[in-house]
Each structure stands twice: as C-alpha cells, then as structure tokens.
Amino acid sequence: MESTTDDQQHTVMFDSDNIQQTGGGTHDSSSRWQKATYDAKSIRQKITFSGRKFDVKTLPVDLYRVYETLKIRSGEEYALTNVFMIRTAIELHRAWHNTLLTAKILQQLKDKFQVRMTWELGVIKLKFHVEDGSHELQYKVPYDYDSEFQDLYMRIAIAYLDEHITVHQGLIYQDETKAGKHTAKTGLFIRAFPGRLVVYPFEAATCAVIFFGGDWYDFGVTALTGFVSGLIEYLLVTIGGSAKLMVDVIVGVSTGLIASLFYRYDGEHTCLPAVFLGTLYWFFYGTAFVLGILEIISGELQTGVVRFLAVAVKTFILSLGTSFGMQIVLDSPKEVWFDTVGNCGTIDLSVQWWRIPLYLACSASALAQYRFPHVDYWRGLSVQLVGYEVQYQVFLFLRTRHSQDLQDTAAANLLGAIGAVVFAAIMSYFVESITYYYHARVLQRHKGKFSPFGEFCYKMSEIYIRITNCLGFGKKNDVVYLRMAAKLKEQREEMENPAHSRTEIMLTLEEEIVFIEAIVQAEDLNIWALLMPTLYQLVPGSLIARLWFNTIFLPPLDSECKVIDGTDYNFVKPVQSASHAVFESLLVTAVSLALGTLIGFGVVEYGTYILTKLFCCKNENQQITSDPNASADSIGTINLRKSSRNFFSHTINENNPSSDLYTIDENDPASDSERNTEDTNVNEEAGFDDDNITETNNDLLQPLL
After folding, report:
1. Coil, strand, or helix at residue 561?
2. Is the peptide bond before 194 cis (omega within 30 degrees of 0)?
3. DSSP of 199-224
4. Nearest residue to 143 (alpha-carbon basis) of 85, 83, 103, 98
5. Could you give the count of Cα atoms lying within 13 Å of 654 in the half-sphere of its Cβ?
6. Cα angle value 91/96/97 (rounded, 5°)
7. By three-state DSSP, how is residue 259 classified?
8. Average pLDDT for consecutive 10-residue bins of the chain (705 residues)?
9. At 93, phi and psi to the nearest 5?
10. What pTM was estimated for this model as a whole?
11. Which contiguous run of DSSP H or E holds residue 127?
C-alpha cells in the first residue's frame, strides 16, 4: 500500500525491515503488512490511464434498469458500485457458497462507500434490496465450487475497497476474469469440459483406496466408473435444460450398473462400497454439511437447515440411483451389499509407505475439481496434508480407547480442522511476507534496495514466476509485466527528472490490462481458497451416503442375549452397533469439523492479536489514501477489514448496524436511510410496498457480464 498524508511535514516511511518516522520519530520492527512506502507515490499513481469505461449495456436487463435509475439519483460512481457489489456477491456465491463470508465483504463495501443496500443470501436464491427496498433483484445461483474465481473476485473487491483500482477497472477485470483472460493455460484446460474429464477417474480411483477400503483392483474399476460419470455429466450439461436435473440419478445408475457387472462376472471380489463412494465422492458436496452447521452455529438457522437437508436429499438420489443399477444386474442386491463388505479393507494403510503420496494424489485431484490455480498447488496440498495427518494420527491413537463411542471421531476431526486452519494462516503469513518484496519492487512501492533478505526474497519470487510460466502453470502476463516493470521504472525516472521532457507515463491498452492484473494479484491470497478444498477432503460426504444405503438395504439387527436368573428364559436386548450408527457419526463429524474451523480461526485471531501487542509497534491512526481528495482509511481500519473477512460475525439476511466499521453520521442524510432500513423491511413483509419495483432474474446460468 502507498499514499501521502495530508500533513506533508509528517511523513511515514516503512522500509523492508523497520518503521522510520521522520520529524522526531522512532525505529521499530514491524510485521510484513506494515512494510510499505508512504513518502512517495507508487508507479500506479504516476500513470495516466486511458480512462476505459465499463460497458453497462452488457448488464442483464433488470440490473441495467436499476443502474439507470441509480445513476440519475446518485451519479454514475454510486450506481456502478451497486452493480459491482451485486456481481461480486453472485460470483462469490457461485464459487464457494459461503454466505457468511460473502456477506462480510458486501458489508465492508457498503460501509466504505455508504451504499444503501441490504441483501438476503440463501442456499440458491439471492435477493438484493437496493435503495432501502425501492428496488429488489433476485437471482438463482447454482453450486459451482471454484477456488480460483473465489480468490480472484475477493482480490478484485479488496483492491476496489482499498482504492487500488477504480470501479470501472474492477468491473472490466471481472469481465476479463469470466472470459479466462487471467487464468493460466493449464487452468483453462481443466476449467471446463472436455478437459475436466481427466479429473473424474483420477479422483474417484484414489478416493476408493485412500478413504473407502478399496484395493488396486477396485482402483481400476472405480477409474472406469469415474470416467463414465464425467462423460454423463458432460453430455447432460451440454444438452442443458431439464437434462441437467437428471445428472445425479443417471450417474448413480451407471455407477451401480458397471460396478455390479464387474462383481458378478469377474470373481465377486469387488468392494462395491469403495467403488460407489469413490465414484460419487465429488457429487456428494460434503462441504455443504459443514457450511450448514457453521451457519446454524452463527445464528442463520433457516439457511443452515435448508442447506443441510438439500444436500441430504441430493445424496439420497445418488444412492438410490446406484441401487437401481445394482437391481438391473444382480438377483439379490441386499445380500451382495453385505457380502461384499468382506472384500473391503484388505490393505492396512497405516503400514504402507505410499499412503501419504496416494493421499496427496487424491488431494491434487480435489484441487483440480475446485479449479485451484496450479501455481499454488503446493500451498493447497500442504494444508490438506496437515489436516489429514492430524485427523488420521489422532484417530489411530484414540480408537482403541473409544471402540464403543464416537469420541475418537469427534476429537480427530476437531483437531484436524484446527490444525488445517492454523497451518494455513501461518503459511499464508510467511508467503505474503516473501512476496511482499516482489510486489513492492515491481509496483515501485519502495525506493532503493531492500535488505539482503529482501533482495533474496525478490529474486526467489522472480525465479519462481519464470519457472512456473515455462511449465505452463503460471500466467503469461506475469512475465510480460516483469519486462514492463523495467520500462516503467525508466519512464518514471525520466518524468521525475526536471531536465527531461517527459510529463506523463502512458500505457497501451494491452499494457494497461497487464498492469491492472499486477495490482490485483498483489492482494493477498484469500485463506478460504485454501481451506475449502481441505474441508472437502475432511467432511463426511460419504457418511450421509452410507446412511442412505443403510436405509435402502436395512442392516441386520444386533442383539445381546442374557439368561434370566432362576428361569429357563433368555432376555434378548437390541443393541445398536457402532458400525451402524451412521447418522450419529455424520452429526459428530460435521459438528466437530465446524467447531474445529471456528476454534482454529479463534486461535489465529487471538494469537495474532497477542503477538502483535507483544512484538509490533505501529501507528494505527496514521491516515492512508491513494487519492488526496478521498476520505482516508487508517492502518488500523485496513488491518481490521483484512482480518475480519475470514470470520463470521454478523447476519447474512439483513443490514447489521454494529458491523466492523459501521458508524452513523447525524449530518449525513444517507444515515437516515440506513436507520430506516429495518422499518422498510417490515413494511415490505406486511405488504405495504406497492411503490417498489421488483426485478427478477431466474436464469440459473445467466452470466453477469
């Protein structure tokens, strides 16, 4: 970050190692996020941009009508900010379906730009109440987990929030992101079909062995059923319309059919549960169970319960479809289901050297399904491995003590989630500390040389970018900007030289696109982009499938028989086996993972606070802004916004008057509108909103471009 203060006599400079406060200041050590130069403008503020405008005619008809009304009432900037917020919410919701965190970034944008908007973020349907309810926009947004888009849209929103880009630049960058202009070539290959077909068999086969007790024979069978499931989804999605509604049941039928054929005609040694659960693993959406529990814990009961039930029904459809496939091939599907259990668990993973490599291969396929950027795979795999190993080792340690209860499961999942969150936060801190030097150099946020450590970090970052680009994992524009950086540095020196004729720095259209990408990419990687695939690997998506299979194929009742003293009679008492307590195990696993996630973020939040108080000395009231005419944000305000984006601290269904940065200005007429928001919502519910304009968009796949 960079800016100049209103008081030019009191300049604050952050170098690579110390805070230097001129005019009688002090020298103190600082953390990475304090290291920025405030005594001079960065190259971003020296460039004369072309003034490209976002084409509002590309907006959907309903959103365009609202934009035109807002433009007349409050000006173009305010109208476009409303458009930006709605588009950001829709794409974040599509990419991660984490309503609590989507609401957080919306609230920060609303507070920053004083937008008069409220929202309702449901499981599928989103509602936006614009101008205190005078307009209502509704959208249906389907699941489509996408870590890359989740991270990019968060970075764009943060860049606009921190005034690093304009609203026009942000909206244009969103369009370019949807068009794939900011995705690496390898990422584009697996982003959509037919490239994604290579992921399905790989993920299904590795999951069958590492999670569900399959052997290498089951590995091959599951690879085939996984490939067929991918083909079916590709075909039905391509057809579109009502055909998409049949994906789950047809995938289930094909999986049951193919696996049963192998069981019947190839020696009856197939582990059917491993094949079924491995193939359907991606279709279960197990992450939604944990998100549902998180929403319930956070007070969003309706959204959490609906999400939980919706995914349970989806899983039942998959399980029932699989049983239909078994019926087509097998004479007695129920007997085969229980007989095939003896074919499972023949490999003791705890003594196999390849357990961790196989898990990493499975995790890599999960990252591919989540469209995680290849250049950051090492970060995603590291977090997944830590969560898995903590979960696995704790479970092995406790399972002998808790053979008749589920406390071992609860403890393993709780500590696994905590370990993953804490490790992700620590790793993100160190990665951001290293990449700071690269961004500070290429964006000219720092003058002169860094310390030897800083120069080393910059060089390593540059080498990493060049290597990953050569391998096809990185973005071509990263290397293009490295060449541009030297040119921009030379032009800046010419402009600041009184003897030189240069008066401005102009970029071509292509150079401007590359430069804006460099600014957005300088924002930190969102930690939830790392955690969503990790939770996916830990969550109980398969447990709910086991529950439904036990509903379809009722297990035999275990009993305990005792002789009644003094008689010839026996007392038979039904006993619930721990192996059949699937529903209980599902709840224990989902709730413990949700609690572990919350506790992990609590550890990170309060641990950071304590360490900051002990080792960091900063002037949090120092005002910073890239625009001398704009309202300034303090360092403390920006840090508060940054840290709070990962936590669930306010409702998703209405404006929260006690949000992180929310204040009411008694002299601001907009504040009166904010205070009347709740009354407006009550009037709407009572039916007294005849003057409201309701705009509805029910197209499930309509891109907001």
Report:
1. strand
2. yes
3. HHHHHHHHHHHHTT---HHHHHHHHH
4. 98
5. 13
6. 90
7. helix
8. 34 33 35 37 80 92 94 94 96 88 90 92 92 90 87 93 92 93 89 92 94 93 96 93 91 95 91 92 83 86 88 88 94 89 89 94 94 92 94 88 79 93 93 90 84 92 91 87 87 85 85 91 87 84 72 71 63 53 75 91 88 67 42 59 62 42 41 40 37 36 33
9. -65, -40
10. 0.81
11. strand 125-130
Give start and end residues of each alpha helix (H) in 240-300. 247-265, 272-280, 287-297
Identify whether the C-beta of residue 514 lies closer than 8 Å to the C-beta of residue 442: no
Residue 279 pLDDT? 94
CB 532 within 8 A of CB 150: yes
Residue listed under structure tokens 């936060």: 425
8 A C-beta contact, residue 274 and residue 285? no
The Cα 503–Cα 516 span in angstroms is: 22
DSSP class of residue 576 equals: -
Whole-angstrom distance, CA of residue 463 vs CA of residue 475: 14
Cα Rg of the chain, angstroms? 28
Residues 6+ apart with CB under 8 A from 158: 105, 523, 642, 645
Lookup: tokens for 424: 């992700």
Q: How far is CA 184 from CA 96, 375, 431, in A?
A: 20, 9, 20
Q: Do residues 201 and 223 lie in contact, with contact meaning Cβ atoms separated by under 8 Å?
A: yes
Looking from the CA of 572 toward its CB, the CA atoms found within 13 Å total 3
